[in-house]
Amino acid sequence: MPEGDTIYRAAVRLGAAMAGQRLVRSDFRIPALATADLAGERIDEVRSVGKHLLMRGEHWTIHSHAGMDGLWHVLESGRRAPVPAHTIRAVLATAAHEIVGSSLPVLELLPRAHDLDAVAHLGPDLLDPAWDEALAAEAAARLRATGAPVGVALLDQRAVAGLGNVYRGELCFLRGAHPTTPIGEVAIEPLVALARRLMVANRDRTERTFTGDTRRGRRTWVYGRGGQPCRRCGTRIEDAMLALEDGALRQVQWCPRCQPEPQRAEPLPA
């Protein structure tokens, strides 16, 4: 699933093509929006909020969430999108570009005056331009209030917006926390500060890295490296499934030496 830095880059790319431009055509290919016509609507800005994307117009906002596979493509007029036609959910045309949304599980039109209600449930966005000590403190308080293991709390978008499976695994490793460590036993403020630093560092990179090395296969400490030696100590990286509050399972990796398991935690299933 795209994480906050990926959606941020998408907003920048879409904003460069759309902001200040009027739509000359719109084609929504989902039943709920089949009769919607935004031709003539000027798009004022495109912004990301966590994993959500808002194309904010004069009167209407196009709100989307990418889910696991969703993408927005910016194409020169007349070019075909590099995706199967049956996955296309929206085509938005300006004088110079076609913006094509594919495989979007969430796509809706909202009145501009109330569009931020769609993201009001989210915790502080790690890439919020207005990020300050108050937002950092709110994010820490919300994480603490989850009462969940750190590996679950970091994925709770109501606590802090933008983090996904990759960031969760890398943050836990860098802070030396086993994913099942209760959030109350983790130094939360430094964790939030690190999450913000990493997200900002990666937001303008095409190749996200947590190690500082942008070469393929060298960018993560533990994510996607189950069974391989830890880059720090050489111990075999463990790989298991961790249940979230909604019952969904997410793959998680950790180093058993660098991230010792809390004694009273139930071991993760193999």
UniProtKB/TrEMBL annotation:
Broad enzyme group: lyase
Pfam families: Fapy_DNA_glyco, H2TH
Residue ranges occupied by any Formamidopyrimidine-DNA glycosylase catalytic domain in the UniProt entry: 2-92
SMART domains: Fapy_DNA_glyco, H2TH
GO MF annotations in UniProt: class I DNA-(apurinic or apyrimidinic site) endonuclease activity; damaged DNA binding; oxidized pyrimidine nucleobase lesion DNA N-glycosylase activity; zinc ion binding
Family: Belongs to the FPG family.
Domain of life: Bacteria
Protein name (Swiss-Prot/TrEMBL): DNA-(apurinic or apyrimidinic site) lyase
EC number: 4.2.99.18
PROSITE patterns xref list: FPG_CAT, ZF_FPG_2
Species per Swiss-Prot/TrEMBL record: Agrococcus baldri
